[in-house]
Amino acid sequence: MFRVGLQVASRSFSSAAPAKKLKVVGVFYKGGEHAAKNPKFIGNVENCLGIRQWLEDQGHDYIVTDDKEGPSCELEKHIPDMDVLITTPFHPGYMTAERIQKAKNLKLALTAGIGSDHIDLTAASKAGITVAEVTGSNVVSVAEDQLMRVLILLRNYQNGWTQVNAGGWDVAEIVSKAYDVQGKTIGSVGAGRIGYHLLKRLKAFDCNLLYYDRVAMPSDREKETGATREADLDTMLAKCDAVVMNVPLTEKTRGFFNKDRISKMKRGAVLVNNARGALMEANAVAEACKSGHLGGYGGDVWYPQPPPKDHPWRSMPNNAMTPHVSGSTLDAQARYSAGVKEMLRRYFVNEEFPADYYIVKDGKIAPQYL
Of the candidates 190, 62, 65, which has an alpha carbon nearest to the alpha carbon of residue 115? Predict the structure, then answer.
């Protein structure tokens, strides 16, 4: 599968247990008025992932900001002397090779959620920085959202919603491109944790389920989901009425779905991507939606994040796009907050993390990111 944890070494954590006050920097989006309205909404600047009091009680400094872009941003000011960085995929604090070179004190980079591609993992491995994420914290949240987008796109819901909110009423325009999910062929590119949960939920819709992955799912999971593995991606794409992306972003998968790859898909098929925006060639997706080769494209991941106002996905037809929200429900926030707190606790007392939380450890990058 795409997500394979690193083996836990028998020795203790590679970095020495902190015996001094550490500088911990968190990069989150602003919650604004919403942060005060709901105490469960903790993944923001104002509520500091729910760990400020605990961290400060441990005697550490905790700086939280949403300002992460450009040479004069708040994050840039703290890079030279921060010891720990916490950031999220939803408002990523990009740690480039240049920034990592400046981060002389940085020993630990934590992702509150899943997906650490906002960090240059090669540079982190060379610098001896441990990178870890809260594996499994939002897999259900994302899988549910993917299922929703498959339904939205196949049923042509987003165009109907737009139509009535603009004062229109043209039933023919909507139903001429609306389909049932039952009986359709739906494929997942990747069948790790999220892919498995998606396929399990789709089974109830009586679909023909396929998946492409370099490693087959265990036989019990194939039986549970009713999904069949396709050995060749392009062969699977030609069969599918809907395709869902479930692979990590690496240098090999960046721009993976380009004009040529999209051309292998069945005309009118829909594509859902809640993995990473950079898996797609943005203009190729927009052109395919305009031409009708793609019946629709939906997802909540962009590149960069936030995207510029003129990003082609904002205005392309038949899109079901949102900000990066699928993995950050209030339930998911509680899980990845607890996971970050537990990793910090372990780090402070020189204990190992769970094996599959590691993305970079002892200079080695986890297989799913290679």
Answer: 190
Assess contact for 83 and 26: CB atoms under 8 A.
no
Q: What is the pairing mode between strands 242-245 and 319-321? A: unpaired
How far is Cα 292 from Cα 351, in angstroms, rounded to an integer? 54
* Token pair 């395709």 in the structure block, residue: 243
The tokens 């709901």 sit on which residue?
38
What are the catalytic residues? 138, 276, 305, 324
pTM, two decimal places: 0.92
Euclidean distance between CA atoms 258 and 218, whole angstroms: 30
Q: Any residues with CB less than 8 A from the CB of 219 and at least 6 apart, and which? A: none
Residues 101-110: tens digit of each pLDDT: 999 999 999 9
What single letter denotes the amino acid at residue 190?
G
At 8 the pLDDT is 33
In sequence order, which residues have a C-beta less than 8 Å from that of residue 14 and are 6 or more positions away? Answer: 128, 130, 361, 362
* Average pLDDT over every residue of 62-78: 97
How many residues are recorded in the chain? 370
pLDDT band at 280 (very low <50, low <70, confident <90, very high): very high
Cα gap 226→138, rounded to integer Å: 23
Give 285-317 pLDDT, tens digit per residue: 999 999 999 999 999 999 999 999 999 999 999
d(Cα 367, Cα 280) in Å, to the nearest integer? 21
Amino acid at 208: N
